[in-house]
Amino acid sequence: MYKLYIFDKKLRLLLLDIIERLEINIRTIIAHEIAKQFNIDENTLRNWLNEINIIRNLSAHHSRVWNKSFTDIAIPDFSNPNLSKFKKANAYFSKVALEQKARSRIFGRIAVLWYLVSQTSKNYHWLDKFGELLKDFPDVPNAKIELMGISDSNLALIYNS
Fold first, then answer.
1. What's the CA gap between 97 and 9, in Å, rounded?
2. Residue 14 maps to a domain
3. Which domain of life is it from (predicted)?
4. Structurally, how many domains does the chain consist of?
5. Of 40, 96, 114, 130, whose CB count within 10 A is highest?
6. Tens of pLDDT along 25-74?
7. Angle at which helices 106-120 and 87-96 pack, to 10 degrees?
């Protein structure tokens, strides 16, 4: 009876190991396919989704995000030959030209969200609504647009989108 118990236990561990390996491989394949659809590499997409999740959690718990400093969001170095194939992302981020400060502020995340949205829908006016919000509240006390990481060139881009 004891041998049957040991056999069963080892069989379950073996099956769990196989299932876990399959799950990891499937996640990797799915991540690769999703990243390909967004025209970006997998590691960058993982970083972006993690940063978006952080913003979502802060927003859901009513935290202030407009002037918060975050870790730098990943923007690939498209001069790297391995990343040169991501032409849409390269064109977008060249146009947006995020400064270093923007990468650690909310605007870096807004730029990434807008890129992701623009890859899924051409008729979405999310950035227009963001621009209208900035126009409607231009002089909120103690809420400077610069603290969001938005430069003058980014502001012109938002208003002209």
1. 57
2. no
3. Bacteria
4. 1
5. 40
6. 888 889 889 999 999 999 999 999 999 999 999 988 888 888 889 999 99
7. 140
